[in-house]
Amino acid sequence: MLLLMDLHFYNSALAEKYLVKELEITERVKELHKANDKYKLGDLFEVKYGLLEQRFNRVYINKDGKKEDVVFIKPSMVRENDNHLESADRIKNMSGIPEKFSDAKKNIETKDLLSSDDYLLTTKGFPRLIDLSTFKWESGLNLVATHHFITLKPKENILNKLNIDKKFLKNILMLIIQKKLSVDYEKSIFDFEKQLKVIKENNDKRSIKTLIPAIKINSIKDINISVPRSIDEQNKLIATIDDLENIRKFVNDNIDLWHKYIVETNSK
After folding, report:
1. What is the per-residue pLDDT across 183-208, written as a single tens digit (0 to 9) for each?
2. Residues 6+ apart with CB under 8 A from 5
3. CB 168, CB 239: distance < 8 Å
4. Are 70 and 144 in contact (CB under 8 A)?
5. Shortest CA distance to 78 belongs to which of 58, 56, 94, 97?
6. How many CB atoms are located within 10 Å of the residue 114 CB?
7. What is d(CA 176, CA 41) in angstroms, rounded to the nearest whole number?
8. Which of 63, 67, 236, 249 is least enclosed by beta carbons within 10 angstroms?
């Protein structure tokens, strides 16, 4: 077992080694970005809110004129541990029995149906991205997002024309959630708590619901991303970013482990 002094030296030396490696990779990322094209997410995805369930029949009329059942996806149908949808059977059980068909309500249209290429982004609470390619689809199961989500549908014709790989876009979306939306959310919560304090102190009659932080569609559409012009370069960029993230995670994990050992050693 390492002595405490050895541990401090080992910790410092390894951290320095990985800091150098991180700087090298960061420079590679900058180089890969130089020849990139710039787009907004709204250029590459159809971005819209989900539907207000109360206004629609849970019915879809297929191309043969037959009625098919529809399940509205709610936040409770997303697993907490990995941000994947629950199984098809569980989702159907959670959706309950459809209300009686009403002529006063709209039927679901083809454009409203979700597909395995789509993504769902929660609008309230900590930002969560649901990748529907991980869901095990069943024949005849039609899913529709509720207003609790923003849907992102890739614009296939534009992606093909611009030679942009879907896997690259998926990774970029994950980075946006981790690096931008999560930070924005933490800031908005801080601002919300300040406003809430003022409201309580002044006995303000404003509805607290209107102050709860929520992600707006335009804030998603207007996010700028940088895309390499070839799929090969896109793959290189993602691999490089993955290397960087893995290094940071390795160092952070080990620092936590070393800190725990040092604390335990000093307490004995």
Report:
1. 788 877 777 677 777 666 666 655 56
2. none
3. no
4. yes
5. 94
6. 23
7. 11
8. 63
Q: Hey, what are 232's tokens?
A: 């090969």
End-to-end CA distance of the chain: 15
Q: How far is it, in rounded angstroms, from Cα 249 to Cα 251?
A: 6
Indicate the burial class of 237 (C-beta count within 10 angstroms; 0-12, 13-18, 19 or more). buried
Report if pTM > 0.85. no
The CA distance from 120 to 113, in Å, is: 12
Residue where the block lists tokens 């959670």: 94
Q: Is 258 helix (H, G, I), strand (E, B) or coil?
A: helix
C-alpha span between 162 and 43 (Å, rounded)? 11
How far lies 107's CA from each of 79, 81, 152, in Å? Answer: 28, 33, 21
Residue whose C-alpha is closest to residue 45's, from 119, 196, 155, 183: 155
